[in-house]
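Reading group handout, session on sequence-to-structure problems. Before we discuss, look at one worked example. The prompt was deliberately terse, the way you'd type it at a terminal:

> structure Bifunctional NAD(P)H-hydrate repair enzyme

The input record follows.
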Amino acid sequence: MHIDLETLVVTPSEMAGIDRAAADSGLDSFALMERAGQAVAAVALRHHPGALRFVVLAGPGNNGGDGYVAARALLKTGCTVELFAFGPPPTKGDAGRARRRYRGLARPFVDYQPMRGDVVIDALFGAGLARDLAEPLCAAIERVNSLAIPVIAIDLPSGIDGRTGAVRGAAFQAERTVTFMCRKPGHLLMPGRSFCGSLEIYDIGIPARIVSAASHHLRVNEPHLWRMSLPSAGIDAHKYGHGHLGVFSGGRLTTGAARLAAGAGLKAGAGLVTLLSPAEAADANAAHVTAVMVRQIDNLAALRTLLSDPRFSAFALGPGLGDFARARNYVLALAESGRPLVLDADGITAFRDEPDRLFHAFSDGPIRLVMTPHAGEFARLFADLADDATLSKVDRARAAALRSHAVIVLKGADTVIAAPDGRALINANAPPWLATAGSGDVLSGVIAAHLAQGMPAFEAAAAGVWRHGAAAAAAGSGMTAEDLINFLNGFDQIK
Ligand SMILES: NC(=O)C1=CN([C@@H]2O[C@H](COP(=O)(O)OP(=O)(O)OC[C@H]3O[C@@H](n4cnc5c(N)ncnc54)[C@H](O)[C@@H]3O)[C@@H](O)[C@H]2O)[C@H](O)CC1
Ligand SMILES: [K+]
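And the output record:
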């Protein structure tokens, strides 16, 4: 069986379990540290062959151990290396052994004076960072950052929490980060991701089956994880029609958001898309669309009539909707109808006073609700999860998915997609300029189009988030939400 470590993401505590399992299986743990440190030295030499001096900042744990190995390897090549040790130098275990094999000088950390021309190997803390950094660490890190000294971080930039991506006091702004076997959440979640520089993942020889057995269904969002669920995928193509997507429009002055979602839905592959518009906005909508259709829906009775047509295969509700009471009534009717639904923006906010009513409505049967909140909307439905500072973004999305029996797309530069069964993905293909007015409406439309074509909710959401990011990357900076729609690629072009 092929185990894919490329997309796997493991938390620091899972990684510690992996280390133990590797040792229990007879693997030489010092050999792992040797390979880790040697890999870092090789990266340093490859990228900085002309460094005036390599400065290894070594902490008291195994991250420091990797640093001693790297320092020894760099010394051996004739480079100038200085090592500054923070805290009690390791004496026991692999790190102690690595320290003893390093024959150079170890100076106290406080002696380090950052200088231009240095290349810093950051071996202070990795997976074992347990609390906020204090002085003199913070001041030294800030000084290195302010001098723009290139930093090669071992495993994680020191100060970045590997589980959450949070900055604990201060963190190195690394030029590159060398990690081992697979990524950690802190490499992908913000702000951690922005401190890592370019990330190199090095195989230090832990068998993939050991890594995978200790991991818990967290991955980076990549097409091969959902490609087989795409409507056009190979021999399954006949299973799916292209569906009919209904997108609810707001009132007279707030129709644009729904039109963006509808246009995106059509471009993303829904066979038919109809804007479901209140009377006051029907003319405005009709005047603006061509391939997208418009149908007047003014009340629950009209919606129920529409729902008696089985060809409507999915809905999107929320962008620009405005009227919360109407939103709640419609959502509950949609839930009853069994149709899949993307709930966004006002559709989410509409349930702020009674989230359980929403969750209850979708609590039975297969997952058919996808919610796409940004952090603020998330807090309206899941205040306790939003307030719990111990939770990572992944933990929050997972807990919310479980509670709501929905797929949660918790948006941001590091969008997390989570399912009630615990599967979770961190998205990493979105450029910063995707944060533009209307881009969330486009995302709703794309995901809803996938649902309309019969994709399961988790895959529909994951594919939607990825295609949305890819479209933004293709559109380039300065794009608008309309451009984003035009740059949505067909399924056949997803590599
Ligand atoms: N399989 C692997 O991935 C391998 C990883 N290696 C490296 O080992 C580290 C993790 O080592 P660990 O000893 O568990 O933790 P750290 O070295 O990161 O830190 C623990 C050390 O630091 C002290 N400490 C923690 N937080 C603070 C703080 N805020 N201020 C001061 N001191 C702090 C704590 O008390 C401990 O003493 C992993 O990242 C890899 O680099 C192996 O080398 C190869 C196998
Ligand atoms: K580090």
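Points for discussion. First: Residues 223-493 form a domain with the UDP-N-acetylmuramoyl-L-alanine:D-glutamate ligase fold (CATH 3.40.1190.20). Second: The pocket of potassium ion (ligand 2) is lined by residues 63, 122-126, 153-156, 158 (CB under 6 Å).
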